[in-house]
Amino acid sequence: MPQSPNAAAEAAAPAASSEPAAASLRAVVAVLERLYDPSWAEPWDAVGLVCGDPDEPVRTVAFAVDPVAAVIDEAIERGADLLVTHHPLFLRGVHGVPATDFKGRLVHKLIRNGVALFTAHTNADSADPGVSDALAHALGVGDLRPLDARAGNPELGIGRVGELADAEPLAAFAARVAAALPATSGGVRVAGDPERPVRRVAVCGGAGDTFFGAARRAGADVYVTADLRHHPASEALEAGGLALVDVAHWASEWPWLEGAARTLRTTLAAAGTNVETYVSTLVTDPWTAHVAAG
User: Which Gene3D superfamilies match (predicted)?
Assistant: First the structure.
């Protein structure tokens, strides 16, 4: 019996793919902005989509702390369609992006190679879970609450404070921090009696020397943050009650990336779309060497 034209066409047609469809950049940005609402960002911050066509498909998303040249080159080499960074490329307003300076050149390189750029900065700091949750979990600190809660929502805010399972000497805790975070040339600095017991821990990913008072009010024994300066740190010690652990800015924020990537994947998969993700392991801390004095 001769085959009907329709049957022949159906036989020749490729089988329907069971793979989830690629997400559009618009859909990926919508998920990211639900996770890290732009309204949670500080007024001075610059977050959101920096460049990219919302209608383009996204199959691979890269996550990194800094949108520096090496990270962008890696994203291009690995075929990323979107680079999500914690730190903004442009924190202040610009009137153009000519390729005559390094930031303009980076924008041109991203666009030429079809890589979109999205930033989640202080909105990711305030999110639940956010940057400081990831830092606290990396250190084994649980039962978390915001160090500086946002008005109207006790779950959101900058920094976290919580508890270790058991108290331990400050020296042992500092070793815990050094082991938990990626290595940098600056390492970990400690201020306080090495033998003092610590259990309640305050953390703030990134530069957190404006929250000494909040850490003290929360009853923290030790405060882990980055970019501590001489005078604020000295005054915090003189005020008493608080030991300090100072780590590299980049290292304090890097633990957030894997959780952010995982949440993006699972959220998009639940909506029937699929993306691959990777977390850059390039060390973008600007300090490249440490020489002990004396």
Answer: NIF3 (NGG1p interacting factor 3)-like
CA distance 247 to 169: 18
- Pairwise CA distance, residues 41 & 91, whole Å: 12
Q: What local confidence, expressed as pLDDT, does residue 13 receive?
A: 47
- What topology does CATH give the domain 19-123+255-279? 3.40.1390
pLDDT of 5 above 50: no
- Per-residue pLDDT of 154-183, as tens digits, reads 889 999 999 999 999 999 999 999 999 999
CATH code 3.40.1390.30 for 128-247? yes
pLDDT, mean of residues 58-72 = 98
- How far is Cα 188 from Cα 218, in angstroms, rounded to an integer? 23
Domain with CATH 3.40.1390.30 in the chain: 19-123+255-279, 128-247
